[in-house]
Structures are given as C-alpha cells and as structure tokens.
Predict the structure.
Amino acid sequence: MKVTEKNSTSIVFTGDIAFDKYMDGKWEDEHLISDEILDFLHSADHVVANVEGAVCTFEQDKAATGEAALVHTIDPAAMKVFWRMHADIWNINNNHVMDAGQQGLLDTLANAKSFGAKTIGAGRNLREAAQPLFLEEAGGIGMFAVGYRPRCRAAGPQTGGCLPWTETDLIRQNISDIKKRCRWCVIVCHGGEEFTSLPSPYVRDRYRSFLDMGADLVVCHHPHVPNNYETFPGKAIFYSLGNFIFDTDYQRAQYNTEKAVLLKLNFTEDAFTFEPLGIRIQRDTERVVSGPLPDIFTDVQEEEYEKLSPLAAKMFLEAVKRQHIFLFPEKFADASEADWEANFMDPDRFERFPNECLDFRIIYPLAQKSKEGAWKTSALSRVREYILAQMDPLV
C-alpha cells in the first residue's frame, strides 16, 4: 500500500473472484493478470477484492455437475494472486463464503489476518459481520458490506455468517454512525439477479434506499456480468462489476460473463470521481486482460431505465431459461412457454423472496411490457443493442 496524503485517496473495487473449473490452479500463472491491469490496481491506495468463497483447505468434487458444481472455495495458495493485486481489503459477504461451513469462514478470517488484509461483510457473529471498516483518508471513509438472501447466509448473535441486506435498522445505524465520523460512506453489496443487464426494480429501489439513508456510494457484484451505473448529485450506484477471476461452465452458458469492469474511486474531502477499466477473461489462455468497456456500463437515468427495464427483464427471463436447462435438464430441456410461465408465476417458486430476490411475479409481467415497444425510443442505442444481442429469439 502506498503512502497517501490524508486529504485524498483512491480505491479499486473488483468483481467476483474464484478459482474453480477453468481457473483451477491459475494462481501459479504469474501472467494470470496482465501488466496493464496490475498497473491499474497498483495505482490505487487500496484494493477491495470480492473473495467469492471461503479461503480454506476443502476437498471439492471437481467432477460434480448441476447444482453440486456451484460449491466454491479458494485454496489458500491462491492468496499469492491477492498479493500481486495488492488486495488489502477483502469483501467476504457473498453467497459462497459459507460453502465450507462455519469452519471455512473461520479459516477465511484467519487467512486474511495472516495475509494482512482487512475483511468486511462477514464475521463470527452479526455484530462482527456488520462492523464498518474505517479509512482515515479524504476526510474519512467508512465502508461495510451487505448481501442478498437467501444465499448470503446470515450471521446470528452467536453464529458466523454475513450481514443481510434486509437488516434495515442495522444498516441505517451503520450509515448514521459512519457519517458522524467520516465524510464518505461506501456500501459494498453482493446482490441482484445473475446474468441480467439492468437491475430488477426492487433491487434498484433497495440500493437507492441506501443513498436515501445517507450512504454516498454503492458498489455491487454477484450477477457475473457487468451492469449499468446511475449517478445522483454527489452520489452513485454501480450495479455490477461482473467477473474478475471466475470462469465455469455454468457461466459460459450465458452471455458476457467474460466481460467486466474494474472500478477506481478517487476521493478528496470535497468530491469523488471514478475511473473504470474494461477487462475480459481471455478464454484460450484463461488470463485476465484489458478490453473495451462494455456498452452496458453507462449512466442509465430514471427515464431511460423505465424504457429499457422491460426489455432487460425479457432478456433476463431468457438467461434464467438457459440457467434452468443447464442445472435441471431433465425438467426444463423441453419446456413449453406455458410451462415456463407456470414456473415463473408460481407463488411458492423455489427461492422466490418477494420484492427481494428472484421475484418473477414482478419480473415476468414487467417482461411482457416489452411488447409495448417503449425500449425502441430509448436514446441509449448502444445499451439497447447490447441487451437485444442477448435475446434468443430477438424480439
């Protein structure tokens, strides 16, 4: 970490990091991350890495298929990559940090401490999981992490886990405490729908509520693809950075999982600016290199969101169909549109959390509005074409 003036600082945030399937053992590749990307990481005073799984010794079934293939842990040997990245802050609030149980979480905390990294978002109990990290720079920065239910398993009074994004009172109190002490409040969030281009309405509303509570910035991951961002006077939400080091068959079944963004936030006591770097996973070598910024990484304001969100919802339904066919081919490989509608509109649907996660009773009707064609009038033509390119068949 470089020495910095107290009145300014910079922080780079990564998307999802895991070392399974095609990235297995890639920590031994000194050229896994290109020099240009390393230079970008090293140009910051801090690097916040989304460590997508318990850092522990755990015997995984590498031949597993379907849902069993979605267990992710990280061999402690991979910490040499975090060292190359200068990743001094680990977000461990995600849907895989508990894949090795309570012991896996404890090992992750111990490995972070031995590495010299601070952690946010998960701990040995709810109080510890909610504890903000304070940086005494740029007038003070307070940072904490939240995660979606049900997969970001919640900590309890005496059990380890994550800070859920539904702990509204605790989140509000955190923000209040931070703003009394610091100029800046940053929330890192692991949430939103996988493989979507724009956030679902209830996800967008949740993140905006954090700003209403007093937070200044929300930086998100989990969808495994890049999303848009949205700016407000003196504030911003970055809805998904995509993958950083992560490549599995589950993700290859979807569009744009090889594209992502690294985000640098520059802070002074008066203002913040941001610098994005487009990156991509070069799948012939399984290395992470720089690339063009994805067209979806654009400031999508309210009016344009209202026009484009039905099209994005329709695209998301297509992604979910591919996901289900990948995970449950015996049930969905030959499903009719009537079968899909029944699945999406089932009030007791698997993992549906009303107005919070995979709420297809909101998303499915929104997708039907795409037939009205308001998206055709959007001024964000490159965003529109980016979404349309993922539609099969095209609308």
Remarks:
- The mean pLDDT is 94.
- Residues 182 and 315 are 40 Å apart (CA to CA).
- The first strand starts at residue 8 and ends at 17.
